[in-house]
Amino acid sequence: MSGPELVRYSFYGFTAASLAIVAATVLYLTDAAWLARMPQPAGGTRPSPWRLTPVGMTTAGWLAQVATRLALVFAGAAVVLRVIVAKRGPYSDMYEFSVAFVFVALAGYVVLERVYRTRAIGLIALPVVLGMVIYVWSLPPSVREVRGLIPALQSSWILTAHVTSGVIAYAAFALSFAAGILYLVVDRWPRSWLPSTELLDDAAFRAVAIGFPAQSMLLILGSVWAHQAWGAYWQWDPKETAALFTFLVYGAYLHTRSLRGWRGRRSAIFLAAAFATVVFAYYGNYWFGGLHAYGGV
Fold it and tell me: What is the pLDDT of residues 32-44, one digit of tens each?
């Protein structure tokens, strides 16, 4: 099978993943709407603060889980096929990076869903992923083709590890944002079919505990790569600065949680606001240019 055919199949895989993500988002919302109409049990809304047993399984909920897993498979195929053709990691432009983000974010959500036995986080996580899908479709069609790397990107394993760390970090922070937002919802509107605030607080913390080391590696490996490519470890490039600020913000979250005992609502609000730094770091090259603005994408 030729390279152009594999690229086309990669695009078909992402198209199928996009459709599955749209379906999963709608189904998660439908599942929530149906469960919200159920009468609350007498004697309280939540019998156990660490309830891990799923509250029923509606048809919409089951289909949402199936659609999410199909999206994960299709997105994974899209990434793998592109890597096979390019013979490198998915890091040449925002199209490749964003498709990889969709795959990793879906994988992280599926793991969260299995570990905590709740599909409610999908109410926030899937719309976030859908937002990334919409962004990918907004890019010019020309970026779907596999292109050669500019000289600054021709660095073997260092750049691959650098970008992989970024994908993992931003996907983990997106999941912590989803858990934090759902925490604020549950805190004000507790329902028996929603996970407990304790569970959501722990899920958000664990996501950051994965994302923060990945963000650290992003900065370290990026500095090594920058020295090789441009002769300096740090040049205060806008995207470098934004990534550093994101690192400091999530470091502050871990600091306030471990040393100042921040838990619950304050931490959830912190995470909801902190995700703005991720969005800025992700898209900042569009607004401010710099060394990371490779033709705008």
Answer: 998 888 766 555 5
Are 76 and 84 within 8 A, CB to CB?
no
Mean pLDDT of the chain: 86
Helix (H, G, I), strand (E, B) or coil at 44: coil
With 0-12 / 13-18 / 19 or more C-beta atoms within 10 angstroms meaning exposed / middle / buried, residue 177 is: buried
Count of beta carbons in the 10 Å neighbourhood of residue 165: 21
Residue 294 predicted with pLDDT over 60: no
> Of 123 and 228, which is predicted with more confidence?
123
Query: Does the global pTM surpass 0.85?
Result: yes
Burial of 232 (0-12, 13-18, 19+ CB in 10 A): exposed
b/e 21-37 (16+ beta carbons within 10 angstroms → b): bbbbbbbbbbbbeebee
Mean pLDDT of 161-169: 92
Residue at token pair 């969005």: 279
Please compute Rg for the chain using Cα positions: 20
Mean pLDDT throughout 60-76? Answer: 96
Secondary structure, 3-state, 110-179:
HHHHHHHCCCCCHHHHHHHHHHHHHHHHHCCHHHHCCCCCCHHHCCHHHHHHHHHHHHHHHHHHHHHHHH
Domain boundaries, the chain: 1-37+60-148, 150-297
